[in-house]
Amino acid sequence: MRARDTDWDGVRLHVVTGKGGTGKTTVAAALALALAAGGRKVLLVEVEGRQGIAQVFDLPPLPYEERKIAVAPGGGDVYALAIDAEEAMLDYLEMFYGMRRAGKVLSKMGIVDFATTIAPGFRDVLVTGKTSEAVRRKGKNGRRTYDAVVLDAPPTGRIARFLNVTNEVSGLARMGPIKNHADLVNGVVASPETAVHFVTLLEEMPVQETLDGLQELRTIGLPPGGVFINMVRESLLPDSVLDAAAEGRFDPAELVLGLKAAGLTDGGSAAVSVAEALAEEIADHAHRAELESRERLALEEAARPRYELPLLSDGVDLSGLYELAESIRTQGAA
């Protein structure tokens, strides 16, 4: 199968982060569908225990196992994995010590919860380690099990700490299996095969968190990806009208004439009331458009690829998810 020409050729781990409320999980799911289109196999991973993937795809809660959840356009497959830190630790004990059965005993005693509580960095190493293993995994034929992995990661405010696993375990172990495990994870996360994408809205706080997050990644040497601008509203008014409304130059009398010409009113007092209400709505819309334009300029200064995804008027259902995936593909992100 011939590889598609996209903005992220060579990237196999797509980490998706964003401020709460920006639609991070929805965008991660749509990106997984877009990457799988045309016959590819993609794994979509979540690590926060919210069962967000199941909700987006309208499925029952996902177990701790990789299972097929969707067929992408063109016949590709999307698999999903909801990582549980306790199960990931049992995998770790099996992988490095052959102690899965003993690990289950420790789990019943609460030792696993205790370990991940006193050393939260170790929990992040476990869940990122499981994701990195999926990226590296090969089948008996020597080919990668997955063409790409999409990680629905924690919010922007803690994404750098979550991914910066080498520093996170430095206080836990300077050698031995834990250190080796962290180095393997870091070898994937910090490589050109990884891109950390940000999801934002055209609002001041999520845009600022996105800019801060990008800068933090650059500071610690992790690979920044693109910016997905979600829930973009299409303006239905010409720029001249928006400019006039934003500057207070819009005349409601013009609306009265327009309503009368369209046969919607007789031009009397009722028409004036309707026109004044519409004028207020237009002014609010103009101010929002002005704000969004300013935030777009701020994102342009980050010099990262940007992709605009439409606001879905009927909400995000399965058909809407495929619509977002198509938009992502059309814009060259997958």
UniProtKB/TrEMBL annotation:
It holds the Pfam family ArsA_ATPase. One of its GO terms (molecular function) is ATP binding. Residues 13-179 form the ArsA/GET3 Anion-transporting ATPase-like domain. InterPro entries: ArsA/GET3_ATPase-like, ATPase_ArsA/GET3, P-loop_NTPase. It comes from the Bacteria. This is Anion-transporting ATPase, ArsA/GET3 family. The lineage of its organism: Bacteria, Bacillati, Actinomycetota, Actinomycetes, Streptosporangiales.
